[in-house]
Amino acid sequence: MQTSKSFRLDDFIAGWIGGASSVVVGHPLDTVKTRLQAGKGYKNTLHCVLTIYRKETVAGFFKGMSFPLASITLYNSAVFGFFSNTQRLISKHRYGDGRHPCSMLDLTVASMLTGLMSVGLGAPVDLVKIRLQMQTQMVLAENLHLAGNVSSGTNIPLRSVDLPGQRVYRGPIHCISSILQAEGLQGLYRGAGAMILRDVPGYTLYFIPYTIFCDLLKPDAAASSLHPCSIWLAGGLAGSISWVTATPADVVKSRMQADAQLQRKYRGILHCIVHSYKTEGAQVFFRGASVNAIRGFPMSATMFLTYELSLQFFRSL
After folding, report:
1. 238 close to 207: Cβ distance less than 8 angstroms
2. In angstroms, what CA-CA distances link 157 with 151, 154, 206?
3. What is the C-alpha separation between 212 and 102, in angstroms, rounded?
4. pLDDT tens digits, residue range 137-173?
5. How many whole angstroms separate alpha carbon 233 and alpha carbon 229?
6. Are the CB atoms for 223 and 275 separated by under 8 Å?
């Protein structure tokens, strides 16, 4: 697994295993979060959950999961592998030894670089996932171009038009090809700017709290490893902190990515922020925060626990 003293492959493999487990645990609540942030007609989290269940059954919560399961595993592999190896490179450069413990500044730099790197891989994955999650939403009348059919002074009583069974995308591959044909390669990176605003500070508030909580939960300073329950708790708390603080940027990202070309509503990040604020108030940027807090805990707890245990297993071989 180890190719050099500074670069290790086992971090990537452990990250892949951790990513797969976290997707299965977190996808149902991720669907709820996306619908709340980018959808219409939901009063609150419970109403959203009940609506999805009544209209789409349990399968509705797992809509669009096949693509994240295949891709987010690779994404998390890259994130954890990059973060761990970046730490070792920084330690080797600053202290002459890749095994030297990183300072808080070193961890911050490694976290921010990881967040920046993650957007290149994660933006297309998130875009496809959100498009698949959102395609069962009702087609809003405000997004339908009915010029010539309705006079400007006419008041349309219907707020939405339900088109059951009408699916824009047949699956992940069809979604990718459709976006490429309609918008080109840049279409897959719609919302990437908002994702940078989310992930650079987001990963800093992910890895730093995890490190701090792990240190606090160690039975003594000399202990080399943590109990699995401590890893689970530290990872869960770090995930909740990261996702709650990232919610405003996550709302903007979700809206930008759900904004398909045929019903394009936002010209850019700033327009999305201003338009959302003017039409729905400041509270819109915290929509889905409770779901993020709840979802972030089991997802990250599972991620870090599976990652650390996998790492221990590989390094014991």
Report:
1. yes
2. 14, 9, 46
3. 12
4. 534 433 434 334 444 444 444 444 444 445 678 888 8
5. 6
6. no
- pLDDT of 194-226, one tens digit each? 999 999 999 999 999 999 999 999 877 666 678
CA angle 86, 89, 92 (to 5 degrees): 150
Q: Give the integer Cα–Cα distance in Å for 252 and 212.
A: 29
Give 220-265 pLDDT, tens digit per residue: 766 667 899 999 999 999 999 999 999 999 999 988 888 875 567 8
Q: With 50 as the cut, is the pLDDT of residue 46 above it? A: yes
Q: Which residue shows structure tokens 């591959």?
A: 173
How far does CA 9 lie from the centroid of its chain? 24
Are 193 and 123 in contact by the 8 Å Cβ rule? The answer is: no
Judged by phi (left if over 0) then psi (alpha if -120 to 50, else beta), residue 212 lies in alpha
Q: Are strands 139-140 and 160-161 parallel, antiparallel or unpaired?
A: antiparallel
Distance between start and end Cα atoms, the chain: 9
